[in-house]
């Protein structure tokens, strides 16, 4: 059963921290840590609501699903949209690195900056061991202006689909099983994804 682990903005802001001194970082400070070499690509971290958080390790199935989805979107997307894999998007307080982002624009637009949430038609996280964290990220993506968010739940063999409504504080996902299909409208194109392809059932 799907539990309600989606966090609102206020819950993220007031989340209980351990009883020792901690520090939140702005996006600019987080980037400076990278520029100074304090954080390196080997550290495998991302910034979530000001906290520097370790990213989860990826199993083979995680990599398989990311590659399959990336190939499928590359072949289906209309002009004016990009597929971005495990690269940052920038919000006011976070710089997450989702497994896939479908971004409006072209490569030239992002030579000197990362896409914003409002430029993301869709964000996808593939979850095996990271399911609770990925559900909690829904609040970050919603508040940043991302239109839609999918969690590919490998263990349960379903997709949790969040279609964010403007002004909502929380949003329960719809659940789509591995033996169904998912339709998404991107610009003038209607894309139909057979979820069996993701879970190796087709």
Describe this structure as you would to a colleague.
- By secondary structure, the protein is of the alpha+beta class.
- It contains five helices and ten strands.
- The chain is globular.
- It has a domain at 58-198: tt1808, chain A (Alpha-Beta Complex), CATH 3.90.1570.10.
Do you know the CATH architecture of the domain at 58-198? Answer: Alpha-Beta Complex
Order of helices and strands: HHEEHEEEHEEEEEH
- CATH fold field value of the domain at 58-198: tt1808, chain A
Strand order of the largest sheet: 3-4-5-6-7-8
Share in β-strands: 25-35%
Under CATH, the homologous superfamily of the domain at 58-198 reads tt1808, chain A
Please report the first level of CATH classification, the CATH class of the domain at 58-198: Alpha Beta
Task: Provide the gyration radius in Å.
Answer: 17 Å
Helix-strand makeup class: alpha+beta
Mean pLDDT: 88
Straight-line distance between termini: 25 Å
Shape: globular
Give the SSE layout:
Blueprint: H1 9-13, H2 27-35, E1 45-48, E2 51-54, H3 60-76, E3 81-85, E4 100-104, E5 120-127, H4 131-144, E6 148-153, E7 158-163, E8 174-177, E9 181-186, E10 189-194, H5 195-198
Parallel strand pairs: 5-6
Antiparallel strand pairs: 1-2, 3-4, 4-5, 6-7, 7-8, 9-10
